[in-house]
Amino acid sequence: MLKKSMFVVLALLLWFAVFQFDLPMAMATPPGTPSKSTAQSQLNSLTVKSEGSMTGYSREQFTHWISQGGGCDTRQKVLQRDADYFSGTCPVTSGKWYSYYDGVSVYLPSEMDIDHVVPLAEAWRSGASNWTAEKRKDFANDLDGPQLIAVTASTNRSKGDQDPSTWQPPRSGAHCGYAKWWINTKHRWNLNLQSSEKTELQSMLNSCSN
Amino acid sequence: MEKKTSIFTATHGVMTVEVGVISGELELLTTCDDEGILTLAVTYVGAEEWYTLPGQDYRLHDPRDHEVVHRMLATVLERS
């Protein structure tokens, strides 16, 4: 009897252990994620400026998602890159994604959005209104830096066009990475930032260990 | 067909169907037809595309209520 109940307890423990390991599957960080010290110097070098107007803005000013060859577009490329595993090649039909912003695991690609870490509307009022259409297209489909990331559609919608002074990822463990990606993208694309945005980025960056 | 517009600042943004939350200097457009059918749209001031506010099938029993509904909506959205 004792043996049997011990076996049950052991089985339960094992089950919990497996279940626990399943939850925090961290995704690989997107390309170009800077170290804390690099992000700090990049933040220091950004120009603080009040936001420009939205005159002339539309999402069509930032052509996306463009073809990346082999029948894949930018969205499909990021879905593949950020998946723990997936099946189907453009379109991806199923798989597993860990949504970094809210820590939710998702198995259907239709529930995932590709977030522009620095939103298109935010880019427009931070300097992109003066760019050529070609440059805006490159920005909107930037696979070289940490500007695109697969997250749940619900977090992407609640973020919308907001900067870190009004929206930060609901999972506090995501704040360090999010600040690094935001800073790096604004730095690479030479976009301005507001002082309230800078203050929040600094405090998020302070939460990084390295 | 009666149209009313208001410009307001949404610091923490307004939820839209097409692009999620939008923020900053926004313009609200409400349209009410003779039947009282109400449609709601919002844009960035000066931008080239409009977005839909969530919800649908809004119908006023009297189109003369359009004015007060528009003003209430603009006030609530500004606060958010």
UniProtKB/TrEMBL annotation, chain A:
<feature type="domain" description="GmrSD restriction endonucleases C-terminal">
    <location>
        <begin position="95"/>
        <end position="201"/>
    </location>
</feature>
<dbReference type="Pfam" id="PF07510">
    <property type="entry name" value="GmrSD_C"/>
</dbReference>
<dbReference type="InterPro" id="IPR011089">
    <property type="entry name" value="GmrSD_C"/>
</dbReference>
<protein>
    <recommendedName>
        <fullName>GmrSD restriction endonucleases C-terminal domain-containing protein</fullName>
    </recommendedName>
</protein>
From TrEMBL, chain B:
<protein>
    <submittedName>
        <fullName>Uncharacterized protein</fullName>
    </submittedName>
</protein>
